[in-house]
Amino acid sequence: MTFWDHLDDLRGTLFRVGAVWLVLAIGYFIAMPWLFDRVILAPCHNNFVFYELLRSVGQWLHLCGDFFTETFEVKLFNINLAAPFFIHLSTSFLLSVVTATPYLFYEIWRFIRPALYPRERRGVRKALAIGTVMFFLGVLLGYFMVYPLTLRFLSTYQLSAAIENHLSLNSYIDNFLMLVLCMGLAFELPLVTWFLSLLGLVNRSMLRSYRRHAVVVLVIVAAIITPTGDPFTLTIVAIPLYLLYELSIVMIKERKRTHE
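Now predict its structure.
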């Protein structure tokens, strides 16, 4: 294929991905009232699955702390006239981007496949499959644990008894989308590290020797991707990032040195 043929193929790929995103965004826009009440706002209610799990753990271990026994409800308010409409649009689009990730990886595979050898094709296909699974694992962890913990801590935290907390719709959605999406992207760390190892840029010994430096870098990254900037949220995000770093070390195979 000539350069222009490749460019035309790329244009077709981008068009198909854009079409899928648009169709999904329209579908989510139509279903958003139902999704908003039952999915996005679910962490605001006491019957959310993670809160039920906390209460079950508290009963099983006979824990009496408020963290395991208290009821939890959050009521949102809106002060911006146009906010509900724009949140409706932006949330529909971001949900379409998240759910279209497997198709995006498929189109990437379809575009680069002709340029790969059979052995390279198996490796790239495996990497894209792992990347898809890891991304959704991160999204699920962010939705079911990281964000509920963040919401529960920050919405009940009181600087003074004279200050009553009221959570706005904009604040809730910004934190929700940012944390869930960033957790999905953060779970791609082992895949990125694996690619870098194939290029010879990193190896297992190097990752082990720079473990302390990596902790500092991961804390900085966690501070950047957490919209609230508080120590609690930072810790909740930084711990999974560090565990992913350790997983990256396990995934990389140590290359055997050849002796002349």
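Residues 3-151 form one domain.
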